[in-house]
């Protein structure tokens, strides 16, 4: 996988400031120096996405997405914010509903473990944690996120997470013991 870069967290990566040669193999040519502004590279867009998610601004998060998005989070009818989100407006709604439904918590392990970028593809791995506001239950789950960036905008968002743990935290008490899920616990505040 030539050109693959892995860093422990996005914050550890230095911003790219070099010529267009950073984005392709070979030296920059005179044609690369055209007076146009190139689209941000994949790493820069993903790092900005992570920063905006961390800041909790759904509208600014959504501004990084194309008008049409290949969105995938495994269907989970127990989790109110998980459903198809094919447009930029839907992306903003997702992050608003997520913020309204979950109080962020410190995860077990590092929140961000790796960012791997190759061309227009990026994969982010880490750990999620939160307290579902409606039930007071906490969840802890590892995740992997695949993003595709084209012309400076996210066109693919595929999230792989422990949906059983998240669903159990969203379920009322009589439904919260999903088989095989030890990743949920009642909050001390409950």
TrEMBL record:
Residues 46-157 form the SnoaL-like domain. Residues 1-40 are annotated as: Disordered. Residues 1-21 have a biased composition (Low complexity). It holds the Pfam family SnoaL_2. InterPro entries: NTF2-like_dom_sf, SnoaL-like. This is SnoaL-like domain-containing protein. It comes from Streptomyces qinglanensis.
């Amino acid at each position: 996988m030539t050109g693959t870069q892995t860093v422990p967290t996005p914050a550890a990566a230095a911003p790219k400031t070099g010529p267009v040669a950073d984005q392709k193999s070979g030296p920059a040519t005179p044609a690369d120096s055209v007076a146009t502004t190139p689209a941000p590279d994949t790493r820069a867009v993903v790092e900005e996405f992570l920063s905006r998610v961390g800041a909790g601004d759904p509208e600014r998060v959504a501004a990084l997405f194309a008008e049409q998005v290949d969105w995938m989070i495994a269907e989970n009818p127990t989790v109110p914010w998980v459903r198809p989100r094919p447009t930029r407006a839907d992306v903003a709604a997702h992050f608003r509903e997520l913020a309204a439904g979950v109080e962020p918590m410190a995860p077990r392990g590092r929140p961000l473990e790796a960012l791997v970028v190759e061309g227009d593809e990026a994969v982010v791995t880490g750990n999620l944690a939160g307290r579902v506001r409606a039930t007071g239950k906490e969840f802890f789950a590892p995740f992997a996120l695949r993003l595709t960036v084209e012309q400076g905008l996210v066109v693919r968002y595929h999230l792989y997470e422990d949906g059983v743990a998240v669903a159990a935290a969203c379920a009322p008490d009589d439904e919260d013991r999903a088989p095989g899920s030890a990743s949920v616990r009642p909050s001390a505040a409950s």
